[in-house]
Write a structure and sequence with these properties.
This protein is α+β, with helices and mostly antiparallel strands and 458 residues long. It has helices at 3-6, 11-22, 58-73, 94-98, 102-105, 119-130, 173-228, 232-263, 275-291, 311-327, 358-363, 373-379, 385-395, 427-431; strands at residues 27-32, 38-46, 49-56, 77-82, 87-90, 135-143, 149-159, 164-171, 270-274, 296-301, 306-310, 333-341, 344-351, 399-404, 410-417, 435-438, 450-453. β4 and β5 (87-90) form a beta hairpin. α9 runs parallel beside α10 and α10 runs antiparallel to α13. The radius of gyration is 40 Å and the shape is elongated. It starts with a helix and ends in a 5-residue tail after the last strand. The relative contact order is 0.06.
Length: 458
Protein backbone atom coordinates (compact mmCIF):
# COMPACT_ATOMS: atom_id res chain seq x y z
CA UNK A 1 0.00 0.00 0.00
CA UNK A 2 1.77 3.18 -1.21
CA UNK A 3 2.17 6.46 0.59
CA UNK A 4 -0.76 8.22 -1.11
CA UNK A 5 -3.13 5.42 -0.04
CA UNK A 6 -1.63 5.25 3.44
CA UNK A 7 -2.43 8.93 3.83
CA UNK A 8 -6.12 8.12 3.35
CA UNK A 9 -6.13 5.76 6.35
CA UNK A 10 -7.69 7.13 9.54
CA UNK A 11 -4.95 8.20 11.95
CA UNK A 12 -6.21 5.71 14.55
CA UNK A 13 -5.50 2.78 12.18
CA UNK A 14 -2.42 4.18 10.42
CA UNK A 15 0.14 2.70 12.83
CA UNK A 16 -1.38 -0.77 12.45
CA UNK A 17 -1.21 -0.54 8.66
CA UNK A 18 2.43 0.57 8.77
CA UNK A 19 3.27 -2.36 11.07
CA UNK A 20 1.54 -4.81 8.74
CA UNK A 21 3.39 -3.44 5.75
CA UNK A 22 6.73 -3.96 7.51
CA UNK A 23 5.94 -7.40 8.93
CA UNK A 24 7.38 -10.66 7.64
CA UNK A 25 4.20 -12.67 8.22
CA UNK A 26 0.76 -12.36 6.52
CA UNK A 27 -1.93 -10.49 8.46
CA UNK A 28 -5.42 -9.11 8.16
CA UNK A 29 -6.83 -5.84 9.45
CA UNK A 30 -10.09 -3.95 9.43
CA UNK A 31 -9.03 -0.47 8.38
CA UNK A 32 -11.12 2.69 8.53
CA UNK A 33 -10.38 5.35 5.95
CA UNK A 34 -10.57 9.08 6.53
CA UNK A 35 -13.73 9.26 4.40
CA UNK A 36 -15.51 6.95 6.83
CA UNK A 37 -15.42 3.73 4.81
CA UNK A 38 -14.11 0.50 6.32
CA UNK A 39 -11.94 -1.99 4.40
CA UNK A 40 -10.98 -5.56 5.18
CA UNK A 41 -7.28 -5.60 4.19
CA UNK A 42 -5.07 -8.69 3.74
CA UNK A 43 -1.26 -8.21 3.82
CA UNK A 44 0.99 -10.85 2.16
CA UNK A 45 4.78 -10.10 2.39
CA UNK A 46 6.84 -10.97 -0.72
CA UNK A 47 10.49 -10.54 -1.86
CA UNK A 48 11.11 -6.82 -1.14
CA UNK A 49 7.44 -5.82 -1.25
CA UNK A 50 4.03 -6.59 0.28
CA UNK A 51 0.95 -7.71 -1.64
CA UNK A 52 -2.23 -6.00 -0.39
CA UNK A 53 -5.88 -6.97 -1.09
CA UNK A 54 -8.78 -4.91 0.23
CA UNK A 55 -12.58 -5.37 0.30
CA UNK A 56 -15.04 -2.62 1.26
CA UNK A 57 -16.97 -3.92 4.30
CA UNK A 58 -18.51 -0.60 5.35
CA UNK A 59 -22.12 -1.84 5.14
CA UNK A 60 -21.30 -5.08 6.95
CA UNK A 61 -19.59 -3.22 9.76
CA UNK A 62 -22.47 -0.78 10.03
CA UNK A 63 -24.99 -3.60 10.23
CA UNK A 64 -22.91 -5.17 12.96
CA UNK A 65 -22.81 -1.91 14.88
CA UNK A 66 -26.58 -1.49 14.52
CA UNK A 67 -27.08 -5.04 15.74
CA UNK A 68 -24.82 -4.39 18.71
CA UNK A 69 -26.79 -1.26 19.60
CA UNK A 70 -30.08 -3.20 19.46
CA UNK A 71 -28.48 -5.99 21.48
CA UNK A 72 -27.30 -3.58 24.15
CA UNK A 73 -30.48 -1.46 24.33
CA UNK A 74 -33.21 -4.11 24.04
CA UNK A 75 -35.59 -4.49 26.98
CA UNK A 76 -36.17 -8.09 25.90
CA UNK A 77 -33.61 -10.82 26.43
CA UNK A 78 -31.50 -11.20 23.26
CA UNK A 79 -29.04 -14.06 23.02
CA UNK A 80 -26.88 -16.34 20.92
CA UNK A 81 -26.82 -20.01 21.90
CA UNK A 82 -25.50 -23.37 20.76
CA UNK A 83 -27.72 -26.24 19.70
CA UNK A 84 -26.46 -28.24 22.69
CA UNK A 85 -28.05 -25.69 25.04
CA UNK A 86 -25.48 -23.11 26.12
CA UNK A 87 -25.62 -19.32 26.00
CA UNK A 88 -22.72 -17.75 24.10
CA UNK A 89 -23.86 -14.15 24.35
CA UNK A 90 -26.56 -12.44 26.42
CA UNK A 91 -27.92 -8.91 26.32
CA UNK A 92 -27.55 -6.79 29.47
CA UNK A 93 -31.35 -6.97 29.91
CA UNK A 94 -30.88 -10.44 31.43
CA UNK A 95 -30.11 -8.61 34.69
CA UNK A 96 -33.58 -7.04 34.77
CA UNK A 97 -35.44 -10.13 33.55
CA UNK A 98 -33.71 -12.97 35.42
CA UNK A 99 -31.49 -11.15 37.91
CA UNK A 100 -28.19 -12.61 36.61
CA UNK A 101 -25.13 -10.87 35.21
CA UNK A 102 -24.50 -12.18 31.67
CA UNK A 103 -21.15 -13.66 32.65
CA UNK A 104 -22.78 -15.68 35.45
CA UNK A 105 -24.67 -17.95 33.07
CA UNK A 106 -22.63 -17.82 29.85
CA UNK A 107 -21.54 -21.24 28.54
CA UNK A 108 -23.63 -22.96 31.19
CA UNK A 109 -26.34 -25.42 30.20
CA UNK A 110 -29.40 -23.22 30.38
CA UNK A 111 -31.71 -26.24 30.80
CA UNK A 112 -30.70 -26.17 34.47
CA UNK A 113 -32.44 -22.79 34.80
CA UNK A 114 -35.68 -24.07 33.25
CA UNK A 115 -38.62 -25.16 35.41
CA UNK A 116 -38.60 -28.98 35.82
CA UNK A 117 -42.09 -29.23 34.31
CA UNK A 118 -40.93 -27.32 31.21
CA UNK A 119 -37.60 -29.04 30.62
CA UNK A 120 -38.89 -31.82 28.35
CA UNK A 121 -40.73 -29.34 26.10
CA UNK A 122 -37.67 -27.06 26.06
CA UNK A 123 -35.39 -29.90 24.94
CA UNK A 124 -37.87 -30.84 22.19
CA UNK A 125 -37.93 -27.24 20.99
CA UNK A 126 -34.12 -27.13 21.05
CA UNK A 127 -34.05 -30.28 18.91
CA UNK A 128 -36.47 -28.68 16.47
CA UNK A 129 -34.15 -25.67 16.17
CA UNK A 130 -31.17 -27.98 15.61
CA UNK A 131 -33.14 -29.43 12.68
CA UNK A 132 -33.39 -25.96 11.15
CA UNK A 133 -37.00 -25.10 12.13
CA UNK A 134 -37.80 -21.59 13.38
CA UNK A 135 -39.46 -21.22 16.80
CA UNK A 136 -42.23 -18.67 17.36
CA UNK A 137 -44.31 -18.24 20.51
CA UNK A 138 -42.74 -21.01 22.62
CA UNK A 139 -43.14 -20.26 26.35
CA UNK A 140 -41.28 -21.77 29.29
CA UNK A 141 -40.36 -20.77 32.83
CA UNK A 142 -36.87 -19.75 33.95
CA UNK A 143 -35.65 -19.50 37.53
CA UNK A 144 -34.93 -15.92 38.61
CA UNK A 145 -31.88 -15.26 40.75
CA UNK A 146 -34.24 -14.61 43.69
CA UNK A 147 -35.83 -18.06 43.30
CA UNK A 148 -39.04 -16.96 41.56
CA UNK A 149 -40.13 -18.36 38.20
CA UNK A 150 -40.46 -16.05 35.21
CA UNK A 151 -42.37 -17.02 32.06
CA UNK A 152 -40.45 -16.23 28.88
CA UNK A 153 -41.93 -16.32 25.39
CA UNK A 154 -39.34 -17.11 22.72
CA UNK A 155 -38.76 -16.43 19.05
CA UNK A 156 -35.63 -18.14 17.71
CA UNK A 157 -34.01 -18.95 14.39
CA UNK A 158 -31.11 -21.33 13.64
CA UNK A 159 -28.16 -20.38 11.42
CA UNK A 160 -27.10 -23.31 9.26
CA UNK A 161 -23.67 -21.80 8.46
CA UNK A 162 -22.57 -21.13 12.02
CA UNK A 163 -24.63 -23.81 13.76
CA UNK A 164 -25.79 -21.19 16.24
CA UNK A 165 -29.23 -20.14 17.45
CA UNK A 166 -30.24 -16.49 17.53
CA UNK A 167 -33.14 -15.83 19.90
CA UNK A 168 -35.15 -13.19 21.66
CA UNK A 169 -37.35 -13.72 24.72
CA UNK A 170 -40.00 -11.52 26.28
CA UNK A 171 -41.01 -11.71 29.93
CA UNK A 172 -44.75 -12.51 29.85
CA UNK A 173 -45.15 -13.43 33.53
CA UNK A 174 -47.46 -10.53 34.38
CA UNK A 175 -49.40 -10.94 31.14
CA UNK A 176 -50.10 -14.61 31.84
CA UNK A 177 -51.09 -13.82 35.43
CA UNK A 178 -53.50 -11.16 34.14
CA UNK A 179 -55.00 -13.60 31.64
CA UNK A 180 -55.53 -16.16 34.38
CA UNK A 181 -57.16 -13.56 36.63
CA UNK A 182 -59.41 -12.41 33.77
CA UNK A 183 -60.42 -16.02 33.06
CA UNK A 184 -61.38 -16.50 36.71
CA UNK A 185 -63.31 -13.23 36.69
CA UNK A 186 -65.07 -14.19 33.43
CA UNK A 187 -66.08 -17.57 34.81
CA UNK A 188 -67.36 -15.94 37.99
CA UNK A 189 -69.35 -13.39 35.98
CA UNK A 190 -70.84 -16.08 33.75
CA UNK A 191 -71.77 -18.14 36.80
CA UNK A 192 -73.39 -15.10 38.42
CA UNK A 193 -75.26 -14.36 35.20
CA UNK A 194 -76.58 -17.92 35.03
CA UNK A 195 -77.60 -17.75 38.69
CA UNK A 196 -79.35 -14.44 38.07
CA UNK A 197 -81.20 -15.84 35.06
CA UNK A 198 -82.25 -18.92 37.05
CA UNK A 199 -83.47 -16.70 39.89
CA UNK A 200 -85.44 -14.45 37.53
CA UNK A 201 -87.03 -17.44 35.82
CA UNK A 202 -88.03 -18.94 39.17
CA UNK A 203 -89.35 -15.68 40.56
CA UNK A 204 -91.25 -14.92 37.36
CA UNK A 205 -93.07 -18.22 37.64
CA UNK A 206 -93.80 -17.60 41.32
CA UNK A 207 -95.19 -14.14 40.54
CA UNK A 208 -97.26 -15.19 37.57
CA UNK A 209 -99.31 -17.74 39.51
CA UNK A 210 -101.00 -15.27 41.92
CA UNK A 211 -101.09 -12.58 39.21
CA UNK A 212 -103.04 -14.82 36.87
CA UNK A 213 -105.51 -15.38 39.70
CA UNK A 214 -105.86 -11.60 40.21
CA UNK A 215 -106.47 -11.08 36.50
CA UNK A 216 -108.91 -13.97 36.28
CA UNK A 217 -110.97 -12.87 39.27
CA UNK A 218 -110.93 -9.25 38.06
CA UNK A 219 -112.38 -10.35 34.74
CA UNK A 220 -115.08 -12.33 36.57
CA UNK A 221 -115.93 -9.34 38.77
CA UNK A 222 -116.24 -7.05 35.75
CA UNK A 223 -118.52 -9.52 33.96
CA UNK A 224 -120.70 -10.03 37.04
CA UNK A 225 -120.81 -6.31 37.81
CA UNK A 226 -121.95 -5.54 34.28
CA UNK A 227 -124.61 -8.25 34.47
CA UNK A 228 -125.83 -6.92 37.83
CA UNK A 229 -125.84 -3.31 36.64
CA UNK A 230 -123.26 -2.17 39.18
CA UNK A 231 -122.17 1.45 39.29
CA UNK A 232 -119.92 2.52 36.44
CA UNK A 233 -117.30 3.80 38.87
CA UNK A 234 -116.94 0.38 40.48
CA UNK A 235 -116.57 -1.32 37.11
CA UNK A 236 -113.97 1.26 36.01
CA UNK A 237 -112.00 0.71 39.21
CA UNK A 238 -111.90 -3.05 38.64
CA UNK A 239 -110.93 -2.51 35.03
CA UNK A 240 -108.02 -0.37 36.25
CA UNK A 241 -106.91 -3.29 38.40
CA UNK A 242 -107.32 -5.61 35.42
CA UNK A 243 -105.30 -3.35 33.11
CA UNK A 244 -102.54 -2.95 35.71
CA UNK A 245 -102.47 -6.74 36.13
CA UNK A 246 -102.06 -7.23 32.39
CA UNK A 247 -99.22 -4.68 32.27
CA UNK A 248 -97.47 -6.36 35.18
CA UNK A 249 -97.93 -9.76 33.56
CA UNK A 250 -96.37 -8.43 30.33
CA UNK A 251 -93.40 -7.14 32.34
CA UNK A 252 -92.94 -10.47 34.12
CA UNK A 253 -93.21 -12.36 30.83
CA UNK A 254 -90.58 -10.07 29.36
CA UNK A 255 -88.20 -10.68 32.25
CA UNK A 256 -88.82 -14.42 31.95
CA UNK A 257 -88.06 -14.32 28.23
CA UNK A 258 -84.83 -12.39 28.84
CA UNK A 259 -83.71 -14.85 31.50
CA UNK A 260 -84.42 -17.78 29.16
CA UNK A 261 -82.50 -16.12 26.34
CA UNK A 262 -79.48 -15.39 28.55
CA UNK A 263 -79.54 -18.89 30.04
CA UNK A 264 -79.86 -20.51 26.60
CA UNK A 265 -83.13 -22.20 27.49
CA UNK A 266 -85.43 -20.88 24.77
CA UNK A 267 -87.65 -23.48 23.14
CA UNK A 268 -88.94 -23.27 19.56
CA UNK A 269 -92.08 -24.97 18.31
CA UNK A 270 -92.04 -25.07 14.52
CA UNK A 271 -95.26 -25.49 12.59
CA UNK A 272 -96.86 -24.40 9.35
CA UNK A 273 -98.25 -21.00 10.30
CA UNK A 274 -100.92 -19.06 8.46
CA UNK A 275 -99.45 -15.61 8.29
CA UNK A 276 -102.86 -14.07 7.64
CA UNK A 277 -104.18 -15.59 10.88
CA UNK A 278 -101.17 -14.23 12.79
CA UNK A 279 -101.70 -10.76 11.31
CA UNK A 280 -105.38 -10.80 12.27
CA UNK A 281 -104.54 -11.82 15.83
CA UNK A 282 -101.83 -9.19 16.16
CA UNK A 283 -104.03 -6.46 14.70
CA UNK A 284 -106.90 -7.28 17.08
CA UNK A 285 -104.51 -7.15 20.05
CA UNK A 286 -102.68 -3.96 19.15
CA UNK A 287 -105.57 -1.86 17.84
CA UNK A 288 -107.09 -0.92 21.24
CA UNK A 289 -103.60 -0.13 22.59
CA UNK A 290 -102.87 2.16 19.66
CA UNK A 291 -106.28 3.83 19.72
CA UNK A 292 -105.81 4.88 23.36
CA UNK A 293 -103.20 7.35 22.00
CA UNK A 294 -105.38 8.38 19.09
CA UNK A 295 -103.45 6.28 16.54
CA UNK A 296 -104.69 4.49 13.46
CA UNK A 297 -103.49 0.95 12.73
CA UNK A 298 -103.02 -0.17 9.12
CA UNK A 299 -102.10 -3.77 8.20
CA UNK A 300 -101.41 -4.80 4.59
CA UNK A 301 -100.08 -8.00 3.02
CA UNK A 302 -99.73 -9.60 -0.41
CA UNK A 303 -101.60 -12.78 0.46
CA UNK A 304 -98.59 -14.67 1.82
CA UNK A 305 -100.26 -17.89 3.00
CA UNK A 306 -97.86 -20.03 5.09
CA UNK A 307 -94.43 -20.17 6.60
CA UNK A 308 -92.66 -22.71 8.82
CA UNK A 309 -91.92 -20.94 12.09
CA UNK A 310 -92.82 -20.62 15.77
CA UNK A 311 -96.24 -18.96 15.89
CA UNK A 312 -95.93 -17.51 19.41
CA UNK A 313 -92.42 -16.14 18.82
CA UNK A 314 -93.56 -14.52 15.56
CA UNK A 315 -96.59 -12.98 17.26
CA UNK A 316 -94.43 -11.66 20.08
CA UNK A 317 -91.94 -10.10 17.65
CA UNK A 318 -94.75 -8.24 15.88
CA UNK A 319 -96.57 -7.26 19.08
CA UNK A 320 -93.39 -5.91 20.66
CA UNK A 321 -92.58 -3.83 17.58
CA UNK A 322 -96.14 -2.58 17.15
CA UNK A 323 -96.55 -1.78 20.86
CA UNK A 324 -93.30 0.16 20.71
CA UNK A 325 -94.55 2.08 17.65
CA UNK A 326 -97.90 2.85 19.33
CA UNK A 327 -96.22 4.00 22.55
CA UNK A 328 -94.08 6.62 20.80
CA UNK A 329 -96.75 7.90 18.41
CA UNK A 330 -99.58 10.32 19.24
CA UNK A 331 -102.53 10.73 16.86
CA UNK A 332 -100.54 9.20 14.04
CA UNK A 333 -100.40 5.99 12.03
CA UNK A 334 -98.87 2.65 12.94
CA UNK A 335 -98.36 0.40 9.92
CA UNK A 336 -97.56 -3.27 9.40
CA UNK A 337 -96.74 -4.20 5.80
CA UNK A 338 -95.91 -7.80 4.84
CA UNK A 339 -94.53 -9.11 1.54
CA UNK A 340 -92.70 -12.14 0.15
CA UNK A 341 -88.97 -11.72 -0.50
CA UNK A 342 -87.55 -14.74 -2.33
CA UNK A 343 -87.27 -17.58 0.16
CA UNK A 344 -88.28 -15.34 3.03
CA UNK A 345 -90.92 -12.91 4.17
CA UNK A 346 -90.40 -9.23 5.04
CA UNK A 347 -92.46 -7.62 7.81
CA UNK A 348 -92.17 -3.84 8.08
CA UNK A 349 -93.43 -2.00 11.16
CA UNK A 350 -93.41 1.77 10.74
CA UNK A 351 -94.79 4.82 12.50
CA UNK A 352 -94.74 8.60 12.19
CA UNK A 353 -93.90 9.15 15.85
CA UNK A 354 -91.05 10.93 17.64
CA UNK A 355 -88.23 8.99 15.93
CA UNK A 356 -84.68 8.49 17.20
CA UNK A 357 -81.18 9.92 16.83
CA UNK A 358 -78.23 7.81 15.64
CA UNK A 359 -77.06 7.48 19.25
CA UNK A 360 -80.51 6.24 20.27
CA UNK A 361 -80.47 3.63 17.51
CA UNK A 362 -77.19 2.28 18.86
CA UNK A 363 -78.83 1.50 22.22
CA UNK A 364 -82.31 0.52 21.21
CA UNK A 365 -81.75 -3.29 21.10
CA UNK A 366 -79.92 -3.51 24.43
CA UNK A 367 -81.90 -5.05 27.34
CA UNK A 368 -83.41 -2.56 29.81
CA UNK A 369 -82.23 0.30 27.58
CA UNK A 370 -84.38 3.05 26.11
CA UNK A 371 -83.51 5.89 23.79
CA UNK A 372 -83.05 8.18 26.81
CA UNK A 373 -84.06 8.44 30.45
CA UNK A 374 -86.43 11.34 29.70
CA UNK A 375 -88.21 9.33 27.01
CA UNK A 376 -88.55 6.39 29.39
CA UNK A 377 -90.08 8.61 32.04
CA UNK A 378 -92.47 10.22 29.55
CA UNK A 379 -93.64 7.18 27.59
CA UNK A 380 -93.03 4.29 30.00
CA UNK A 381 -91.85 0.83 29.05
CA UNK A 382 -89.08 -1.41 30.35
CA UNK A 383 -86.67 -1.51 27.42
CA UNK A 384 -87.12 -5.26 26.97
CA UNK A 385 -89.44 -5.50 23.99
CA UNK A 386 -86.98 -4.69 21.20
CA UNK A 387 -84.23 -6.81 22.76
CA UNK A 388 -86.57 -9.81 22.89
CA UNK A 389 -87.84 -9.17 19.35
CA UNK A 390 -84.35 -9.15 17.87
CA UNK A 391 -83.22 -12.26 19.76
CA UNK A 392 -86.37 -14.17 18.77
CA UNK A 393 -85.90 -13.12 15.14
CA UNK A 394 -82.32 -14.39 15.26
CA UNK A 395 -83.43 -17.69 16.80
CA UNK A 396 -85.92 -18.10 13.96
CA UNK A 397 -83.11 -17.60 11.43
CA UNK A 398 -83.99 -14.02 10.58
CA UNK A 399 -82.95 -10.48 11.35
CA UNK A 400 -84.22 -7.04 12.33
CA UNK A 401 -82.88 -3.68 11.23
CA UNK A 402 -84.03 -0.20 12.16
CA UNK A 403 -84.15 3.14 10.38
CA UNK A 404 -85.20 6.35 12.08
CA UNK A 405 -84.84 10.10 12.12
CA UNK A 406 -85.68 12.40 15.00
CA UNK A 407 -89.21 13.76 14.58
CA UNK A 408 -89.85 11.70 11.43
CA UNK A 409 -90.83 8.30 12.78
CA UNK A 410 -89.19 4.88 12.90
CA UNK A 411 -89.21 1.79 10.68
CA UNK A 412 -88.30 -1.73 11.81
CA UNK A 413 -87.77 -4.29 9.06
CA UNK A 414 -87.95 -7.98 9.96
CA UNK A 415 -86.79 -10.72 7.59
CA UNK A 416 -87.74 -14.34 8.35
CA UNK A 417 -87.23 -17.52 6.28
CA UNK A 418 -90.38 -19.16 4.98
CA UNK A 419 -89.14 -22.76 5.00
CA UNK A 420 -87.45 -23.23 8.36
CA UNK A 421 -84.73 -21.61 10.36
CA UNK A 422 -82.51 -20.06 7.69
CA UNK A 423 -81.40 -19.95 4.13
CA UNK A 424 -79.77 -23.37 4.15
CA UNK A 425 -77.82 -22.87 7.38
CA UNK A 426 -78.00 -25.46 10.12
CA UNK A 427 -79.86 -24.71 13.31
CA UNK A 428 -76.78 -24.55 15.51
CA UNK A 429 -75.14 -21.87 13.36
CA UNK A 430 -78.28 -19.78 13.12
CA UNK A 431 -79.12 -19.81 16.81
CA UNK A 432 -75.60 -19.28 18.04
CA UNK A 433 -75.70 -22.52 20.03
CA UNK A 434 -79.06 -22.05 21.75
CA UNK A 435 -81.07 -24.81 20.10
CA UNK A 436 -81.24 -27.80 17.87
CA UNK A 437 -84.68 -27.92 16.33
CA UNK A 438 -86.42 -31.20 15.55
CA UNK A 439 -89.16 -30.65 12.98
CA UNK A 440 -92.25 -32.81 12.92
CA UNK A 441 -92.95 -35.03 9.87
CA UNK A 442 -94.77 -33.31 7.04
CA UNK A 443 -98.07 -34.99 7.84
CA UNK A 444 -97.89 -33.71 11.41
CA UNK A 445 -97.47 -30.04 10.61
CA UNK A 446 -101.08 -29.31 11.42
CA UNK A 447 -100.09 -30.13 14.96
CA UNK A 448 -97.05 -28.69 16.63
CA UNK A 449 -93.45 -29.71 15.97
CA UNK A 450 -91.10 -29.70 18.92
CA UNK A 451 -87.71 -28.19 19.55
CA UNK A 452 -85.23 -29.61 22.01
CA UNK A 453 -83.29 -27.09 24.06
CA UNK A 454 -79.60 -27.96 23.89
CA UNK A 455 -77.86 -24.93 25.31
CA UNK A 456 -74.14 -25.68 25.66
CA UNK A 457 -72.48 -25.24 29.01
CA UNK A 458 -69.25 -23.38 29.50
Amino acid sequence: MGEPILARVDVVHRAGVEAALGADAPSELAVRLSDGRTLAVAFAPAQGWTEVAAVDITETVQRGRDGDRIFELSNDLVCTATTDGRFLRLSPSVRDILGYAPEDILRREFINLVHPDDQAATLRELGTLADGVVTVGFTNRYRHANGDWRSLQWAATPDAETGLIYAIARDVTEELSLRAALAVARDAAESASRAKSAFLAHMSHELRTPLNAIIGYSEMIVDEAEDDGAATGVIDDVRTILEAGHQLLMLINGILDVSKIEAGRVELFLEQVSLVDVLNTVEATIRPIAERRGNTVRVTHDGTPWLLTDRLKLQQILLNLLANAARFTDHGTVCLDVRVDGDGVVLVVSDDGIGMTDDDIGRVFAPFEQASASIGARFGGTGLGLFIARRFATLLGGSIRVESALGRGTTFTVWLPRGGLSRGADAQAVTGGYLVVVEAPREATEGRATAASTAPRA
